[in-house]
Automatic annotation (TrEMBL):
Gene3D superfamilies: TPP-binding domain. It comes from Leptospira mtsangambouensis. It is an enzyme of class 7 (translocase). It is found in: Cell inner membrane. Its EC number is 7.1.1.1. SUPFAM superfamilies: DHS-like NAD/FAD-binding domain. It catalyses: NAD(+) + NADPH + H(+)(in) = NADH + NADP(+) + H(+)(out). This is NAD(P) transhydrogenase subunit beta.
């Protein structure tokens, strides 16, 4: 069998593994296997590509593989689930910058040929890789900085910021067109890459922390699109296919997230959600004298007579790493014959599916997780709702205040339950920077404290009751 046939067969097998792997990632029970299938597909693609190229020495390649593998192992062991959104942002960024460098290297090799004849499919793909890859790299690291707290989570706005983005974007497009017309001028490519990096900063810095799940999904899509464009540069089928899969799935997920927030992608990118946080008055007067605090012992008495309980996980639960303690509470209540389910909002946490992954990590049965559309109509029949670290996704202002930054966002209607217990460190606002009227509702009790510690205290009180 010819080498080309073996190569194409290997790429076909790798592509199939990618598709099957993504399909299996859709369910927690098969997600681990899907991840392994995707990794196997990538291994096959990399090995096949290395054998296909006229490589004189593998020394530096092996060094890169060893360093990359070591970094990957350390990250897999050390990174906590609460930091997974930041890691995803970083990986997106590295995918983008890799496309920039690979396309730049391809341009260097092709410049001598362009003196005689220009391959416009190649040069257009090279330019496109520079633009999308550059935006992905800098935008992803701005998102990482916001999530990690290195950069303010608030939307950074300034007079004329939209005009600046438009001008920088037009500059990138103009340089791209010129680069296609004058492909032998390598300096244009690197100037274009620099402008694209700048554009990525300008695009993401005005976006507030509440929109980071959408931004991460979008940047993930960008990294796939950049990889696919690089596939056209290299005439590499598996890179085209895998990049297209990542790009398409990222766009679909972005649309799902926008729908869950009842906002358009344009509004996310240019609306500056989160900017109002700096304009809000102190919430002390809003809550003063209206909040009813409770204790773990009082909550235990409520749970002792409850027949149905819904737990709403949020980012506060993730920060406290309380998912395993929440599982212990779930098992204790279930053993007493209480029906316990989990209400999952699509944008709870800092990345799509964040709460699903955390609860799956704690071995909570997947059929106990109910999506917002499925569970909202049942809250009025629920005895006790325990909100563990969630805020904006339960805020009634989304329905009652058309001027609120979360106006129109679908929320979990926990206020319809007979009793709501909110576990929270303080009355501080969520990402949107607005107070939550749920906290002063007649049927709401506030259990102040760390999500893990408060849940453990509830378990102890239940066992003693």
């Amino acid at each position: 069998m010819e080498l080309v046939s073996i190569l194409n067969l290997s790429y076909l097998v790798a592509s199939i593994l990618f598709i099957v792997g993504i399909k299996q990632l859709a369910h927690p029970k098969t997600a681990s296997r899907g991840n392994l299938l995707g990794a196997l597909g990538m291994l096959i693609a990399v090995v096949a590509t290395l054998f296909d190229q006229a490589i004189l020495t593998y020394d530096w390649i092996l060094v890169g593989v060893l360093i990359g593998s070591l970094i990957g192992i350390i990250l897999a062991i050390k990174i906590q689930m609460t930091a997974m959104p930041q890691l995803v942002a970083v990986l997106n960024g590295f995918g983008g910058i890799a496309s920039v460098f690979v396309a730049g290297a391809a341009l260097q090799l092709s410049i001598p040929k362009y003196a005689f004849a220009v391959n416009y499919q190649e040069i257009v793909s090279i330019v496109f890789s520079a633009i999308v890859g550059g935006i992905t790299f800098s935008g992803s690291f701005i998102a990482f900085g916001k999530l990690q707290g290195f950069i303010t989570e608030k939307a950074v706005r300034y007079p004329g910021d939209q005009l600046v983005k438009i001008l920088v974007g037009l500059t990138a497009v103009g340089l791209g067109v010129y680069g296609c017309l004058e492909p032998t001028d390598e300096s244009i490519y690197w100037i274009l890459s620099g402008v694209s990096l700048l554009l990525g900063v300008f695009l993401v810095i005005p976006i507030g922390g509440a929109d980071m799940p959408v931004v991460i999904s979008l940047l993930n899509s960008y990294s796939g699109i950049a990889a696919s464009a690089t596939g056209f540069v290299l005439n590499n089928n598996v890179l085209i296919i895998s990049g297209s899969l990542v790009g398409a799935s990222g766009i679909i997920l972005t649309q799902i997230m926008c729908k869950a927030m009842n906002r358009s992608l344009t509004n996310v990118l240019f609306g500056g959600f989160g900017a109002v946080a700096t304009e809000m008055k102190d919430d002390g007067d809003f809550y003063s004298g209206k909040v009813k605090s409770t204790s773990a012992e009082e909550v235990a008495m409520l749970l002792d007579v409850a027949r149905s309980v819904v737990i709403v996980p949020g980012y506060g639960m993730a920060v406290a790493q309380a998912q395993h303690t929440v599982r212990d509470l779930y098992q204790l209540l279930t053993a007493r014959g209480i029906d316990v389910t989990f209400a999952i909002h699509p944008v709870a946490g800092r990345m799509p599916g964040h709460m699903n992954v955390l609860l799956a990590e704690a071995d909570i049965p997947y059929d106990r997780l109910k999506e917002m559309d499925e569970i909202n109509s049942t809250f009025e029949n629920v005895d006790v709702v325990i909100v563990n670290g969630a805020n904006d996704v339960t805020n009634p202002l989304a329905k009652t205040d058309p001027k609120s930054p979360i106006a129109g966002m679908p929320i979990l209607d926990v206020g319809n339950a007979k009793t709501v217990v909110v576990i929270k460190r303080s009355l501080s606002p969520g990402f949107a920077g607005v107070p939550n009227p749920l906290f002063i509702a007649d049927n709401c009790l506030m259990l102040f404290g760390d999500g893990k510690k408060a849940t453990q205290e509830m378990i102890t009180a239940l066992k003693e009751s």
